[in-house]
Amino acid sequence: MIRRSRRSWTLLAALLGSALAYLSTAVPALASTSQLVDPESTNAEAINQIYRAALGVTITIFVLVGGWLLYSAIRFRERPENADEEPPQTHGSTRLEIGWTVVPILILIALCGYTFWKLPSVEDVPANHINIHVEAQQFSWTVTYPNGKSNPGAKITLVAPVNTPVELHLNSKDVIHDWWVPALGQKVDAIPGQTNHIWFKATRTGIYRGQCDEFCGIGHADMLIYVKVVTPEAYRTFVNGLKS
Amino acid sequence: MATQVAPAPAASPVQSQSSGLRMWLTTVDHKKIGILYLVTTLLFFLVGGLMALIIRLQLASDNGKVVSPENYDRLFTMHGTTMIFLFVVPVMAAFGNYFVPLQIGARDMAFPKLNAMSYWLFLFGGLGMYSSFVFGGAPDAGWTSYPPLSEISAGHGIDFWIVGLHVVGLSSLIGAINFICTIHNMRAPGMRLSRMPLFTWTIDVYSVMILAAGPVLAGALTMLLLDRNYGTHFFIPSQGGNALLWQHLFWFYSHPVVYVMALPGFGMISEIIATFSRKPLFGYKALVYSTVAIAFLGFLVWGHHMFAVGFPEPLNIWFMLTSVAIAVPTGVKIFNWIGTMWMGRIRFEPPMLFAVGFIGLFLIGGLSGILLALFPIDQQVTDSYFVVAHFHYVLGTVPVFAVMGGLHYWFPKMSGRMLNRSLGIWSFWVMFVGFNMTFFPMHAMGLSGMPRRIATYVTHPGWVTLNEISTLGSFLLGAGVLMVAWNCLSSLRTGRVAGNNPWNANSLEWYTTSPPPDYNFDSLPPIRSERPLYDLRQAARAEAGGGPTG
Predict the structure, then answer these.
(1) pTM of the model
(2) Nearest CA among A46, A82, A99 for reference residue B286
């Protein structure tokens, strides 16, 4: 029986040790899970707000439930002094069980409610947006600007004006691809036979990186996206200078 | 110590197993078929794991050159296919085969020969799929094989994949029918549905789900086969087909399959938690109802895999609401498990460590599932490594913690010998740390924009460090799996003799000898609750006039 008690201490030590080891490796991982890629577009910012709210709720649940689990595991472990004694044979508690069915429902309603409230700023394209057409194919993107001109083969996939809503209309020539530039908000699949739409309104000039996010064949990893956000004047100059 | 219940009069404690090849090839005994399933699925697990390690090596640094993109695509396709169709789904059939008849006090499965047939179909389906590496170039369109990509994939890899899945699917359909017939017709007197062990309950629900979902996949696979080889164009938009039709059919099957894999794992965990807490399950009925509720809701949520395909908004909202609803019965399960541990006298034997580890990690997967169900978040991170992290915390924990827990729990019954305890504890901790190191950083990779299924990546701040941690963790996880394998192999010869009921458990499989003789039982105890062996011990104690000791 003394052996058993020593075992439980070894167990505790192992638990703490591995928790520490785990945390030390997870610090870089943890540090960057607190939010999405720095949002640089109004819709991305709205998604980020939903993410942070939901993350706060889920982390709270994790700490409470995980803590309860850990506490029960340690507090009610068998000890030499009680090993022979039978624990109380409880079969359940309707009141408690109803409680832990209803409370999660309320939390989920709140989370969905918040999402609904934020939805317009994620989904609704502001008026006066410019329309740009993007055609995907293995393994490149062809962007056609409002004046019907495009710039195939360029390193920069798309040039867009800052502080201006841009709606992209996507389709595909061959297989399913997916347009994803994390800093500029959500992704959408480019599917042959249908046109999908997303929009962004970049808040800062700069170059934003993304890549194809739906597996599309051996060149999938090379199907990169660079969006260069420039001033409206620079955008106009660029578009007017396009040849084809 | 607990009152020793008189063992059922049967064969010697460790039965000498005739291991003739002929016996294994021709057996129709549910226990031997269970062992065949178990050994086969665990071998597939090792192969699938090996492929994962090569994937991790490739991604350990930017511009990885361990394998070519062609081979990388084949590796992740077969990793997913193997783990899901050749390991996690059928490993539940392995335990189900062995333990369902024992738990309900039956002599065998309802249809023993059909049972053998479903094993051999499974084996040859799996081997057939793998033979594509030799004959036709392996499948390379991901385990989801979305058309049009899977339509234009050269060679015959995808055709091997389709035919292999057809055969494996047939095996699981036959198995499901067998389980349902066994559970509903062959229970011992007194074994009402409301007294059935949770594991048997979950196998029942598992079988119903396979029956309801399996034919849909079979239909989709047939259409893909016809498209590829016989000139139809169900999924080819340029000829009037619809590429999304496949996704609807595929996920209508494959989302329920998530629960096909998870529910029997929950069943195992329920048994283990109750046994080692030395208490009855807290809220037995709630655990059964939540199993059924999860299964039902599981058929309504497939669209949450398709939030990026450009659904109209009402459809997105519907799939968001049904998906978050699953959190409720899942939460009930977790709370009832902890409720079972509460006030118990918990014995931390290896199966219990695996069970508690499972609850903790599954909680992480469940909570990240809530994040993903809110579709604006999903539209940001779907198909990124965040999703890879999420589904490994949900589906990777089932094989690595629930199934390993079940293996440690039932190994004494199947072999007649105990596993080495300290090796069991060590392998748990190695796998626990390895698992988290592998999969936790993937959340951050995905959030910072790393897509899944890319063979290489260009330098990006943070990605290299995160991937290095993940690769290191995957090898630790692999080492843990090998420790378990070594423990099983060496304990078969040197393990302590287990006796009928080494854990003082309460369901019927622990009443007979370890391993059980042919036809399982010479006699059965009266079954008056969901814990017949507990009742038996109480009765023996009352007869001996003993006090209230355990």
Answers:
(1) 0.92
(2) A99
